[in-house]
Design goal:
heterodimer, A: about 190 residues, mainly alpha, Rna Polymerase Sigma Factor, Chain: A, Arc Repressor Mutant, subunit A, 2 domains, 8 helices, about 0% strand, B: mainly alpha, 7 helices
């Protein structure tokens, strides 16, 4: 069912592994945070921790370990952000919030270099996808990206996210349903 | 109907995946450089850690040190003298106490127990030992 990225891909070195994964990791973090710098910081933390703690592990384990760290970092970011948001709303600093969300989408790379129609459609789809993915609850978003983008199966995703296989199925089905609704016009 | 939905789902998933892959390919130069420098920094840390990883050598060093101490203790010149002296003493004892050893051999041997309980045997053994003593004195 899933177009698999080879999860068991063999990596020759840690450098090879990180080079392969960094772009996707960054995009995952960027979709969640909506902010380039925060996304880079999250990816940096995840890479550092993987190298420091787990570089002696077999290369076949690196991917699961890396995504586990990345998801934890993203979750931490979310927690900090929700505390910040509560504090801001308490202080009535609510005015710039909506502009911020717009800015996050505006800085998306998909918006650049669009001349032909196909390219324009692609970038419009990308922008809508970005909005739709960002709007998903965090767990649904993570499950969806790991399953569809990384090609992980249900059990791998469940182990990585410390939840049951049935939770993964539920999160995935809900995410897919929401995305289908929001991307209806582009299909 | 269900097959139709599955097909649509697969198509949507493929489209999403392709779009996400394209977004990685389209990352701007600054972000690509930033990611490359983050990777480099992480790997530098790894190399530094590998180079200074004394912990890995700790058990081997402890074993080598204790082996060296054991060798020094066993083969120390003073200990060698002591050991030689001990051997010499033991040999002297065995020369000085032949009677006790002979008696012990007799008592531990079950076959000779009958002989050992015979009073004539003691008369005989006194004569033998006396003769040996005279020979040794010469």
């Amino acid at each position: 069912m899933h177009m698999g990225r080879d999860f068991d891909k063999q990596y020759l070195s840690m450098n090879h592994f990180l080079a392969d994964i960094e772009g996707r990791a960054f995009r995952m973090a960027q979709i969640t945070t909506g902010n380039r710098d925060d996304a880079l910081e999250i990816v940096q933390d995840a890479m550092m921790k993987l190298v420091q703690k787990y570089s002696q592990h077999p290369p076949a384990e690196w991917k699961a370990l890396f995504y586990s760290i990345l998801n934890t970092r993203i979750l931490d970011w979310h927690r900090r952000q929700s505390v910040r948001n509560r504090f801001r709303s308490w202080l009535n600093w609510h005015d710039d919030e909506e502009d911020g969300a717009e800015d996050a989408l505006a800085q998306h790379p998909g918006d650049k270099n669009h001349t032909p129609d196909a390219k324009l459609q692609d970038s419009q789809f990308m922008a809508s996808l970005n909005i739709a993915l960002s709007a998903l609850p965090l767990r649904q978003q993570q499950v969806f990206l790991l399953r569809v983008w990384e090609g992980m199966d249900i059990n791998e995703t469940a182990a990585l996210m410390h939840c049951s296989a049935s939770s993964v199925k539920t999160h995935y089905a809900r995410a897919l349903e929401k995305l289908r609704e929001k991307l209806e016009d582009h299909q | 109907m269900s097959t139709e939905l599955t097909k649509e789902t697969t198509k949507l998933e493929s489209k999403i995946k392709a779009s996400l892959d394209a977004s990685v390919m389209d990352l701007d130069k600054d972000t690509q450089h930033a990611l490359a420098s983050i990777r480099e920094k992480s790997l530098k840390n790894q190399q530094a850690r590998t180079g200074l990883n004394f912990n890995a050598w700790r058990p081997a060093s402890a074993f080598a040190l204790s082996a060296l101490l054991a060798i020094l203790f066993v083969y120390h010149p003073n200990n060698l003298d002591d050991a030689l002296q001990r051997i010499a003493t033991q040999q002297n004892i065995s020369h000085e106490q032949p009677e006790q050893i002979t008696m012990l051999e007799l008592l531990t041997n079950a076959e000779d127990l009958e002989t050992a309980t015979d009073p004539d045997f003691y008369v005989w053994i006194d004569e033998v030992l006396a003769t040996e003593g005279m020979n040794n004195a010469v």
